[in-house]
Amino acid sequence: MGKAKSFDISKRAVWDAYRKVKANGGASGVDRQSLEDFDQDLSNNLYKLWNRLCSGSYFPPPVLQVEIPKAQGGMRTLGIPTVSDRIAQMVVKQAFEPSVEPYLHEDSYGYRAGKSALQAVGVTRQRCWHHDYLIEFDIKGMFDAIDHTLLLRAVDKHTDCRWVRLYIERWLTAPFQQADGELVERDSGTPQGGVVSPLLSNLFMHYVFDKWMERNYPNNPFARYADDGVIHCRSEAQARSLLERLEKRFQECLLELHPEKTQIVCCNVRKQKGSEVAKKFDFLGYCFRPRLVRNRYGKLFVNFTPAISPRNAMRIRQTVRRWRLHVRTRMSLSDLARLVNPIIRGWINYYSAYQRSSLTPVLRYINLALVKWVKWKYKKKAQYTRRARRWLGNVAKHNPSLFAHWPLAVPFPAE
């Protein structure tokens, strides 16, 4: 007669979690075991993980600390769990998420099924037309600053499952392992990069911000994506008062607003002339500012609306330069298209949703890289740039869908 398990966790739950982790991919953790390595002894690895989870003897290994550059400068700290730990986190996430998701606010858009950044941009665009002012805010190092006591209190409100609570607490305190092997103890935060971290951060912000706004400012709509958010206000005075209270609220919950990324913005084009506050803001890769647009009758007018931000347009150009397409002369044009089209489609799907014309100059930059490839491929001299453009333009004319961006951008002007 085998010893009964402490926790009732099905083998199917572990298998389903593995399949999701496998589909998501990801780098190896502190044990340097890749997904391919894990698959070499898949059945045994999954059984051992299931057995430890059921017995309560599973303790997460340290999280590999990796620093990546932020788009705005500085470094972002990521925590990369091991493959087996990602599977364990997915088991807990799958069990815990159904008891949390129905309670989250409809204007919380980050890391949720059926919600997206584009939806947040779209609803913000509409609300800017009906509210003259806006607070743009960013929480400084939110994933590193989340208070464990407050978070676990929120977890307890949504589950009485002992093993869910137990393993979440263990993940919160699992140490970071730096590149040199040194372990760094953690007493706050949830590692950005962990499977369960997005759910935990959303739950934390639900009580710290979303419910607080709903209770105290029901007439001020907001949109939040993780630690970035906007709050709409009727007047500048209301915005200043709300921002003051918001700072105090976050301080009470041991969070801090980022001083350089938090501001009051005037969204009313007519009122901007006499206002000293900001007249534009960036949110989720889009820059909101006054722009010349056409109405349904073709008449031009100035409206406060989003388009791809200059910072993100520059990042796309930098990515295209890093491709170094001109040195891939052994590849055919069709090979290049297969290589870059998935990335280009992603840019188009996201940044062409609003003010598509602002994306056209960025897409044409890709054509410059392709012209350079033609010159290197066929050994054309620098003064024959026009000839290379003409050759590529002829290809685009006969095969306009070869590259994902060609149907959206006039590929190659005559001169």
What's this entry about, in short?
With 415 residues, the protein is of the alpha+beta class.
Biggest β-sheet: count, sense, barrel?
4 strands, mixed
General form:
flat
Number of strands: 11
What portion of residues is helical? 40-55%
- What do the pLDDT scores average to? 92
Percentage of residues in strands: 5-15%
Rounded to an integer in angstroms, the radius of gyration calculated over CA atoms is 25 Å
Low-pLDDT ranges: none
Across the major sheet, the strand order is 2-1-4-5
Going by helix content, strand content and strand pairing, the class is: alpha+beta
Order of helices and strands: HHHEEHHEHHHEEHEEHEEEEHHHH
Q: Given the structure, what is the number of helices?
A: 14
Distance between the termini: 84 Å
Which keywords apply here?
single chain; flat; 14 helices; 4-stranded antiparallel beta sheet; 11 strands; alpha+beta; 415 residues
Commentary on this structure:
This protein is α+β, with helices and mostly antiparallel strands and 415 residues long. The chain has helices at 11-24, 35-40, 42-55, 83-96, 117-128, 142-145, 148-158, 162-173, 197-216, 236-252, 310-323, 333-351, 360-377, 385-398, and strands spanning 63-69, 75-80, 133-138, 176-177, 183-184, 222-225, 228-233, 263-266, 281-283, 286-294, 300-308. It has a four-stranded mixed sheet, with no helix packed on it. A hairpin with a 5-residue loop joins strand 10 and strand 11. Helix 1 packs across helix 3 (42-55) and helix 7 (148-158) runs antiparallel to helix 8 (162-173). The longest helix has 20 residues, at 197-216.
